[in-house]
Amino acid sequence: MAEVCWYVVHTYSGYENKVKANIEKIIENRHLEDQILEVRVPMQDIVEMKNGAKKQVQKKLFPGYVLLNMIMNDDTWYVVRNTRGVTGFVGPGSKPVPLTENEMKSLGISSEKVVVDFKEGDMVTVISGVWKDTVGVVQSMNHNKQIVTINVELFGRETPVEISFTEIKKM
């Protein structure tokens, strides 16, 4: 299987969130969830002074750019490159260049893989987050996204919930 890397896409300025929404819709429609794992518009919190009052707002860290965590192949390249608002991948010519480990760390993105001791069918307990202390059976696991789907009882019904590997432990 090809390697999952972070790539940078250049967009029209001000279209970052629209491009993100368009790519996420394409991922859903073409069932590319296992090839394009995450779309991100890096934001930062800034305190602004307006009329003598401090106000905390979010600003784009890199206006005109969107980050993609994906497997690069002809299909994913074509889908992203031909998304409305995208002007191209960052890299020489038409060859996208993945971000290095140091570049990812400076953006606050970690690529560490979590090793788990449970598998599908195992009973697990949620140890943090909204579902803390909830017990469920592992229905499916996505090792690329590092999430597990468990069924929890909600309003008397079994409901599937996606939880990070780091938030659960085997019973």
What keywords describe this structure?
SH3 type barrels, 2 domains, 3 helices, four-stranded antiparallel beta sheet, 171 residues, Alpha-Beta Plaits
Summarize the entry for a quick read.
This protein is an alpha+beta fold and 171 residues long.
Order of strands in the sheet with the most strands?
10-9-8-7-11
Order of helices and strands: EHEEEEHEHEEEEE
Q: How helical, in percent, are the residues?
A: 10-25%
**What is the count of helical runs?**
3
CATH topology assignment of the largest domain = Alpha-Beta Plaits
Major sheet characteristics: 5 strands, antiparallel
CATH homologous superfamily placement of the largest domain: NusG, N-terminal domain
**Estimated radius of gyration:** 19 Å
- Whole-number average pLDDT? 84
What gap, in angstroms, lies between the N and C termini?
32 Å
Number of strands: 11
Q: How would you describe the shape?
A: globular
Q: Output the structural class.
A: alpha+beta
- Count of the domains: 2
The CATH architecture of the largest domain:
2-Layer Sandwich
- Please identify the top-level CATH class of the largest domain: Alpha Beta
Beta-strand percentage? 35-45%
Q: Which stretches of 5+ consecutive residues score pLDDT under 50?
A: none
Overview of this structure, please?
With about 170 residues, the chain is α+β, with helices and mostly antiparallel strands. The chain has two domains: about 5-105, Alpha-Beta Plaits (2-Layer Sandwich), CATH 3.30.70.940; about 125-170, SH3 type barrels. The chain has helices at about 15-30, 75-80, 100-105, and strands at about 5-10, 35-40, 45-50, 55-60, 65-70, 85-90, 125, 135-140, 145-155, 155-165, 170. A five-stranded antiparallel beta sheet has the order 10-9-8-7-11, with no helix packed on it. Strands 2-5-1-6 form a four-stranded antiparallel beta sheet, covered by helices on one side. The protein has a two-stranded antiparallel sheet with strand order 3-4.
